[in-house]
Design goal:
Elements (H helix, E strand, L loop, with lengths): L1 H8 L5 H13 L1 H20 L9 H26 L11 H7 L14 H50 L20 H7 L15 H5 L10 H6 L5 H6 L5 E4 L2 E3 L2 E3 L10 E5 L18 E5 L4 E4 L3 E2 L6 E2 L19 E2 L7 H12 L7
Antiparallel strand pairs: 1-4, 1-9, 2-3, 4-5, 5-6, 7-8
């Protein structure tokens, strides 16, 4: 059961196995204590799990060590058989076997016939196996979360295309002001249109939101709830208005915000893992800050370890517009993904443009 608990903690089990462990934990106090103990022991590995890769050749070295240990055990067996008067078919004992067989008896305190050498070798094997096991399980979990997140975005992409089919080719528009002025309003718009009823579809499995809502029902606020919300409740409704994904609100033409029109562009970002706040290098906070899944206008999804589309030097940063702002694009090809709870940012953009274009020495 212990290895099942480790898999449960690392999210490496199938959903049915996870549910079975959960039910067992509800009725077994000792199992809950064991889970707490394992959590405590795995905590140092959890903090560092994305930082280090196993050394080159560790797998081969571990297998060689195990093979040597097994070979030594077999030689010991041969030596014992020879000393006990075997039938002679074994043949002559090698020098290594004789030396191994003639080793001193185990010291007191190491029961079950284990010598200090045995314990050291076993400890080495266990450590090497752990070095292989935990990174492999963590990487498997990481890849599984990326795949689940991609599936979410693909489904949302299909729904956005269906929405555009009946709205003159446009994806959901984001108002510049009012209670619905949040980049993530596209999600309740899709729900309102009957294109999806599953709020959890908007949760990336590696995001903080997935951990907060694990085991609890998550529901995106409806358009009606947002419109009727007062100043006290509105921020909470907007906080997770589009789950853990950010949205492209469009671009500015003059003083008007133009929503994204579906032209099936393969390098124009429409939706992505939500950008993190407070980082010097724009990246999503999901997936351990190692990258983000991005839904492009032609409905294909790619996991990118950079926020630059088309190359680091001359590419388009999906989290910043061409002026380096977290604000709408400056033209129809300037794609910017904004956090769901944030307003479009057109006021900030207009202010920045006014400051940059004002005559030198003039007062704003």
């Amino acid at each position: 059961m212990q290895h099942d608990l480790i898999g449960y903690l690392l999210g490496a089990l199938d959903s049915d196995e996870q549910q079975e462990i959960r039910r067992s934990l509800e009725h077994d106090a000792e199992l809950r204590q064991e889970l707490t103990r394992l959590e405590h022991r795995l905590a140092p590995l959890e903090k560092e799990r994305w930082q280090y890769d196993p050394p080159d050749g560790l797998a081969a070295a571990t297998c060689e060590l195990v093979a040597r240990h097994q070979h030594a055990d077999s030689l010991q067996g041969i030596a014992v058989e020879s000393r006990s008067g075997g039938d002679g078919a074994v043949g002559e004992i090698t020098t290594a076997a004789a030396a191994f067989a003639a080793s001193p008896e185990p010291a007191m305190g190491y029961g079950n016939g284990w010598s200090m050498a045995d314990i050291v070798v076993a400890a080495g094997i266990f450590f090497a196996a752990a070095c292989l096991f935990f990174p492999a399980v963590a990487n498997s979990r990481f890849q599984a979360q990326i795949l689940a997140c991609k599936n979410n975005l693909r489904q949302i992409g299909q729904q956005l295309h269906q929405y555009s089919d009946v709205h003159d080719g446009y994806f959901p528009a984001v108002p510049e002001s009012g209670n619905l002025s949040a980049a993530g309003v596209f999600a309740p718009r899709l729900i309102e249109a009957g294109l999806t009823m599953d709020s959890r579809q908007f949760i990336c499995p590696s995001s903080e939101l997935a951990q907060v809502t694990d085991g609890y029902e998550f529901k995106i606020a409806s358009i009606e709830e947002l419109e009727q919300a007062d100043a006290e409740n509105l921020p909470m409704l907007k906080k997770y208005i589009s789950g853990s994904y950010g949205y492209n609100v469009g671009y500015v033409d003059g003083n008007k915000l133009i929503p994204v029109r579906n032209m099936n562009r393969p390098q124009y970002a429409v939706l992505a893992d939500s950008p993190a706040l407070g980082l010097s290098i724009p990246v999503s906070g999901n997936h351990g800050q190692r990258g983000q899944n991005v839904l492009f206008e032609d409905a294909h999804v790619v996991f990118m370890n950079t926020s630059m589309v088309g190359g680091v030097q001359n590419g388009d940063n999906i989290f910043l517009n061409e002026r380096g702002l977290i604000a709408p694009g400056l033209n129809r090809n300037d794609a910017v993904i904004i956090r769901g709870e944030q307003p479009p940012g057109i006021q900030l953009l207009n202010l920045r443009i006014e400051v940059e274009t004002a005559p030198q020495g003039s007062a704003m």
